[in-house]
Amino acid sequence: MSGPENQKPQKLLARQPRGFADRGPADIAATERMLAHIRETYELYGFDAVETPFVEYTDALGKFLPDQDRPNEGVFSFQDDDEQWLSLRYDLTAPLARHVAENYDTLPKPYRSYRAGWVFRNEKPGPGRFRQFMQFDADTVGAASVSADAEICMMAADTLERVGIARGDYAVKINNRKVLDGVLEAIGLADDIHTGKRLTVLRAIDKLDRLGPEGVTLLLGEGRKDESGDYTKGAGLDAGQIARVLAFTAARGATADETLANLEQVVEGSARGLEGVSELREIATLVTAAGYDDGRVTIDPAVVRGLEYYTGPVYEAELTFIVAGDDGQPVRFGSVAGGGRYDGLVARFRGEPVPATGFSIGVSRLLAALKIVGSPIVQGAAPIGPVVVLVLDRDQIAHYQGLVTTLRQAGIRAELYLGASGLKAQMKYADRRQSPAVVIQGSNERAEGIVQIKDLVAGSQQAAQSGQDLDNAAYKAQRLAQFSVKESELVDAVRGVLDNQGG
């Protein structure tokens, strides 16, 4: 008879939380190269780096995500020991607003900053939809002129080209929330009692590219059931209201002037709506003067952005090339960045208007796009592994460690094999580490004061050619994969191997 004391403890199941992902060295290296190019563009425009923490007080973030009737809806939240609610940031804009408000008197105005970092959203994960993802933002705080919005959009275009998106394969599209406010006013949703319904309308329009007019019509009406069977409640608009909203999204004409004329008709009678059209006209003038009206930056009424805090111009950077969708059908790649003006966000802390505008790049999504277009940024060489010093004599670990230290002091990435396996297994380990070379020294070599260096890249090439018909002279002409040098020549010899490999 076996009792509880004889039962083996249950093995812990290794499992990744839904909506989160691990990343390997190649993906990390490609991301870092891309971030460096983005950073260069932002700095070229005069933006400086700033960093905010992952955690903010929940009330500082505000209620700008859906389903946030309690603190942990939409965001990941917890209570501190003083019973204050804290949350993981869901974007980089709300923390920036807190940072600016807290340091307002010491910051230069306008304040131009950029920041990159992870953000977290407590939402349903799905294909390409993660609960943790990276954003890279740039913002101008303290500039009321829409010239700041125009500049951000032009910088977005320059950034996409700098990372490898060809001109013609993207468009930075601009709209204005004031124009949409005019449309909502025209259909009777201007009062504060309709705040929830207005936000539902915004999020429905924001899905136009993905769901098309039919899907958006359902979300503006009674609701929509997706492919998985999940039901999303609609805004409950009637047929006339839906038609007015869809007319707004379809107002884009062949030229900016035609689009603006169409928008004026849609918002006729709304002072706020006409103010938004006027701001768009000023942005179009600035874009034209800078030469970005060649398709790089355009006016598009279909852009609304889903977050509630936008107060004026809003914009999205959309990639226009075709890819296979989840169902295998051809679709545009879609949005990789977006943003807009949020004049009320800093004001929540200061009680006075503080104009601000900015945009955010979805880092993982942009990286996926660069892989599709074959950008050199993501096709760069994979990270080179360290030179591995093998251990043939266990009683000589200290001596082997000295060889490793000599390489490191010369700026050469190196490591000592720390396992317990023999020579063959150590060589396999070095291959898995993508090592460019290994250093081998047995007792005989040590007595002579020499080491053996094996070039693993040349060795692989020779192995691949061993089945080909090579005459003896051609074979001898090849650089031998393994050779001996004095210990005092170790650094120069290893550096020569790395140089030959292009490392």
TrEMBL record:
SUPFAM superfamilies: Class II aaRS ABD-related, Class II aaRS and biotin synthetases. Keywords: Aminoacyl-tRNA synthetase, ATP-binding, Cytoplasm, Ligase, Nucleotide-binding, Protein biosynthesis. GO terms for molecular function: ATP binding; histidine-tRNA ligase activity. The keyword Cytoplasm applies. Pfam families: HGTP_anticodon (PF03129), tRNA-synt_His (PF13393). Its main location: cytoplasm. Its EC number is 6.1.1.21. L-histidine binds at D91, L92, T93, R121, Q135, D139, R305, Y309, Y310. The keyword Transmembrane helix does not apply. It catalyses: tRNA(His) + L-histidine + ATP = L-histidyl-tRNA(His) + AMP + diphosphate + H(+). Residues 32-383 form the Aminoacyl-transfer RNA synthetases class-II family profile domain. It is found in: Cytoplasm. Residues 1-23 are annotated as: Disordered. Gene3D superfamilies: Anticodon-binding domain, Bira Bifunctional Protein, Domain 2. GO terms for cellular component: cytoplasm. One of its GO terms (biological process) is histidyl-tRNA aminoacylation. InterPro entries: aa-tRNA-synth_II, aa-tRNA-synth_II/BPL/LPL, Anticodon-bd, Anticodon-bd_dom_sf, His-tRNA-ligase, HisRS-like_core, HisRS/HisZ, HisRS_anticodon. NCBIfam families: hisS (TIGR00442). Belongs to the class-II aminoacyl-tRNA synthetase family. Homodimer. This is Histidine--tRNA ligase.
